[in-house]
Amino acid sequence: GGPPPVVHYDFNAKDTDLSFGGTLGFNFQMGPVVFGPEGDFMLVTGNGARVADPGGSGHYDRIDNQWLAHLRGRVGFDLGGILAYVAGGGAFANIQAQHFSPDNGGQRFSETSVRSGYSLGGGVEGNLGQGWGWRIEYLRDHIGNHDYDFVPGVHYSDSDFTANSIRVGIIWRP
After folding, report:
1. DSSP code per residue over 60-71
2. So what's the pLDDT on residue 125?
3. Distances (CA, A) of 15 to 24, 42, 58, 65, 129
4. What is the tens place of the pLDDT at every residue in 63-110?
5. Is the pLDDT score of 168 beyond 80?
6. H helices then E strands: how many in the chain?
7. How far lies 12's CA from each of 42, 59, 97, 159, 163, in Å?
8. Is the pTM of this model over 0.90?
9. Which residue from 51, 64, 73, 150 could staple onto 109, CB 3.0 to 4.6 Å apart?
10. Which residues of 18-30 are buried (b: 16+ CB within 10 A; e: fewer)?
11. How far are the Cα atoms of 27, 51, 82, 124, 138 from residue 62, in angstroms, in the given order?
12. Burial of 31 (0-12, 13-18, 19+ CB in 10 A)
């Protein structure tokens, strides 16, 4: 008996991926305070994080974030045409985990799942005129742990998936 052995892979990779998507939200204003809900969806490009077996077996794992979405609230202050805000809420990601083995010529295991967590961040936005505006923000998304059993009898875990994003956007306000 007992639990299966654990193989630890460090997925603290510093990948730089490009993403694109859209945001929809509503603002309410009471004096200089602006607040409201918003949601967004982004497709994420890139090759994900690839990490080799620390034991030198030739096996490796790859974790890809295929899309990321948020449902969150934000509150900020109008600073005379510039809005500075903080935001927080739910984060949702479509994560694909793969295990590769030289023993059988390639991919041995693959699982894709939608996982949830939280998002915290903040930013600034301003007006460009005629209903158009700009936005720059930072978000830290923490997606919950998920366990994988890539190899029978050996427990693998993709734990603590965290994304740090700097996003730049153009806003249209009807």
Report:
1. EEEEEEEEEEEE
2. 96
3. 27, 17, 22, 11, 36
4. 788 899 999 999 999 999 999 999 999 999 998 887 777 776 676 777
5. yes
6. 0, 11
7. 22, 18, 15, 10, 10
8. no
9. 150
10. ebeeeeeeeeeee
11. 40, 6, 41, 34, 26
12. exposed
Q: Is residue 140 within 8 Å of 119, Cβ to Cβ? A: yes
Would you call 95 helix, strand, or coil by DSSP? Answer: strand
For 45, 131, 134, the CA distances from 171, given in Å and listed in that order, are 22, 8, 5
Give tens-digit pLDDT for 122-153: 999 999 999 999 999 999 999 877 776 666 66
Q: Are 9 and 54 a contacting pair, CB within 8 Å?
A: yes
Tell me how far apart the alpha carbons of residues 60 and 56 are, in angstroms, rounded to a whole number.
9
Q: Are 74 and 87 in contact (CB under 8 A)?
A: yes
CA dist 28 and 26 (Å) reads 7
